[in-house]
Sequence to fold (458 residues):
Amino acid sequence: MSLQSDQFLFDAESRVFDKEHRRKLAFNIHQYDKKVEEGKLQFEDFDTARQRASTLKWRVTENLDKYLIEFEANFIKRGGKVIWAQDGEEAMAEIIKIMKNANARTVVKSKSMTTEEIHVNTALEREGIESIETDLGEFIVQLRNEHPYHIVTPAMHLSKEDVAKTFHEKFNLPIKSTPKEITAFVRDRLRTKYQHADVGITGANFLIADTGGVAVTENEGNALMSVAFPKIHIAIAGIEKIIPSLTDLDLFWPLLATHGTGQNITVYNSITTGPRQAEESDGPVEMYVVLLDNGRTQLLAQQEQRQALSCIRCGACLNGCPIYKGVGGHAYGSTYSGPIGSVITPHYNGMKEFKHLSYASSLCGKCTDVCPVRIELHKLLLYNRRDSVDQHLSPGSERWVFSFWKSAMLNRTLLNMGGSRLKNFVLKNFFRKSWGDRRELPKMAPKSFNEMWRAMHK
Fold:
């Protein structure tokens, strides 16, 4: 087993048996579930909308190179600059180069899982550059030196009392501060940060090929503020975020809002097509888009699993997953948690280190049922398991056991050999640890069904 696997088992167990943690998570997901059902009502034919979105994303995935080149050409036409990055290290080297050329000391950053993926804050901190999260949930977890707990809701694991305690410890706010008071404090604190920031960094919910636009959807306005004030805007996006046309947003924005937060549409939806033009009064003087690979082309090369690149990062599969509801987001030890994280992380960060995530599933299919673009996530988890076996990444002992088991299952004489006493001895002495301390080992019946059948029928 890998170190990541051991850590996952340790963290998962500690979270599953933490009743307070499960209470908070269950409450927050229950609120989400109610809102999603309301959001679905805006669709005349919900299943058709999902199928249309799935087909569009399939077309993009099958023609990814074409759409990326189209996006790049249209973005450059309006004065933007595109940076192609093979991995996080290359992306950060280019970003830091931009910072140094501008003598930048302060960055305001909107919520972006892609920036979490390449550890932007850590890299900038090493260069002595202050990077401030401006999304309220991201700001909270940054204060706590934690990673986002959820793709959409970074602080889902916290109650309002937990948040009040954090602000009391960090800023000496009253321990009984209400969410409204905390929000007002953060708004006031961040306003001056926006005004004096040298660079603004955002992610991208969608990259629009036919207009060269970067589409960002949000509820707080922090991304707009991160673009409006600084002279330099850097958008960091995975290469899979492409959609063919501006008109496709009439489908994807409502689907993302409904599955992400249960809204008909999010509060702020913006499209940026480059730096400030001559006739415009605000916006950045320079704009860059970093197109990040970081394992995506490796996933694209997998015929069965490539459909995972259709994900629009709504978080619905996390909220529906019984495993995520138990162990929570931090136990996964990766940027992307839940079913979608379990599918893509082995391809992004290494199958050997993260194959265990594909086994952290009940295979109930709930993730597939709720996915707005119809990704068959439970099947992709099985494909990952198959690949890990084909690559001989399982321990030698496990391969030996399955080889023996296969031989026994194909030979009735071997299967009956030794009777229940020998079989129970093997289970007790060789499978106790694998079975777990909190489960009672099964006991083999004195006679197998085959033996009883033979006795009954002579």
The radius of gyration is 25 Å.
